[in-house]
Specification:
By secondary structure, the protein is mainly alpha-helical. It is built from 14 helices and four strands. Helix 5 runs antiparallel to helix 10 and helix 9 packs across helix 10.
């Protein structure tokens, strides 16, 4: 039996719904359809829908209760930066950062692919350890990951998603050497960090300071990717040109080219429309918007690495800018 001190220093989130055979949100969507087809508009059909909804909400409430004991990171105090408190990374420094990242990635390239299950365990271990290094508390959560979910149809531009109520995580497509960072981002949501900027930052910092080359590479590649997105804007051709001119190894170039903005036509209009809706959703929840994934993320890291007000020391493996002595 653990004593009170141990209890405060370790939180376990049940995440039981993440182990369901079918994604919780998929079950919510499917229950009315299946109920009507098999049972019709009968009390039994309504009962089926009610049971599924009750299971979903019950697991969500259990996880919510578990999270009440989490010690939250104060990003402004720990890193000297947060939403609304960041320095803009000048374009010339951003371009220099791209060159620095490209050289490092080429010099330290690791082409090994770790199976998703094993990678998820390593990523969660690094993330849990990094957060505990700041808060003194280990937040234990599920490491289950899905490859299929109907949510992916609603957000075709997304690489992965986390159901904020159940903690269910799905990765929609193979992102190659970037997968560790995609997992870290979604696992941050599972641990209670709902804002996209916070998930991006903690994902990057935990991986780049992990000491594991595969995880470090994924973090640095994500930072390069986001810098290139800022420089290119939404222009597909410019993004491709920037990727090809960065002199990356072919294996790294291929990963980034799979992430280029949508092409013209119906696909681009659909992508743009859904992005706008997602941007609005983020704004309504106190975030800057969809730019938090790239502009906000890279500006945060620049601020963290150059400010003297951060309590945390920038990880040597990920530091690209010299800290101010002001």
């Amino acid at each position: 039996m653990r004593d009170a001190g141990q209890s405060r220093n370790e939180i376990r989130i049940s995440n039981r719904a993440t182990y369901w055979t079918v994604a919780p949100l998929d079950m919510l969507i499917a229950a009315p359809v299946v109920g009507r087809l098999l049972l019709g508009a009968t009390p039994l059909g309504q009962l089926l829908q009610g049971v599924v909804l009750g299971m979903y909400l019950g697991n969500g409430l259990r996880d919510w209760s578990d999270r009440q004991g989490i010690r939250r990171i104060d990003f402004r105090r720990e890193f000297g930066a947060d939403l609304g408190h960041m320095r803009a990374l000048p374009r010339e420094l951003r371009e220099a950062e791209v060159q620095t990242l490209a050289r490092r990635l080429n010099d330290e390239v690791v082409l090994e692919r770790i199976p998703r299950r094993e990678l998820a365990i390593e990523v969660d271990r690094a993330l849990t350890r990094y957060i505990a290094g700041i808060t003194g508390q280990h937040v234990r959560t599920s490491v289950a990951v899905r490859s299929l979910s109907l949510v992916g149809l609603a957000f075709p531009f997304a690489l992965g998603a986390c159901d904020l109520l159940s903690g269910d995580v799905a990765i929609f497509r193979d992102t190659g050497l970037l997968e560790a960072h995609v997992l870290a981002h979604e696992f941050n949501h599972r641990k209670g960090y709902w804002k996209e900027l916070h998930a991006q930052v903690l994902g990057y910092l935990s991986l780049v300071s992990s000491g594991e080359l595969v995880l470090q590479q994924s973090a640095l590649l994500e930072r390069l990717h986001r810098n290139l997105r800022v420089l290119a804007g939404d222009d597909r051709a410019t993004f491709e040109q920037l990727v090809r001119s960065s002199a990356l190894r072919p294996e790294l170039t291929a990963v980034l080219l799979t992430l280029r903005p949508s092409s013209t036509g119906i696909e681009r209009r659909l992508d743009t429309g859904l992005r706008r809706l997602y941007h609005l959703r983020m704004r309504l929840t106190g975030q800057a918007g969809i730019s938090d994934y790239d502009l906000g993320f890279t500006n945060f890291l620049y601020t963290f690495e150059t400010t003297a007000s951060a309590r945390q020391i920038a990880p040597p493996a990920g530091t690209l800018h010299r800290r101010s002595r002001d």
